[in-house]
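Much of what follows relies on a compact textual record of a protein's fold. Here is one such record, which you should read through line by line:
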Amino acid sequence: MNATPSCPGLAGLERTLRRLQSLPPELVRQALVQYSRKLAPLPEHLRTLPREPFAVHECQTPVALYPEVVDGRLVFWADVPASAPSIRALLAVLFEAFNGCPPEEIEGIPSDFVRRLMDRLGLGAREAGLNAIVERLRRAARQARQGAGLAPGAGAAPN
């Protein structure tokens, strides 16, 4: 794929997953709390947009994802309550690996990513909403790759 230092991509995601899987459950929880704190705040220019077109309705937690294309690469932002550390951690792991990557790299997020990360924490019951978040990232990548543009109704930020 197209991984670079500014785009760890699938290789970076796999390294993070291996590192987390090698830890006992309590240390995984601690690591995910640290990841949840890494999720960057929503930039001001996205705060003024209506939230509804960016909402991930399948998720029990109010989550909104805002993808942007910058020089042909995707950058994702999220609006997630601080009271949802699991979701924030999942997004921080994904954004660390895929922000700044070309769309093709993001489309390759493994279908078992959520299960591999969350099963160890007993959060498998939340898998549907978490998978919906990952699918939203893939959809934005497909739209960007196809040059369809990123539009609010499609779960992506306007250019």
DSSP finds seven helices and two strands in the chain.
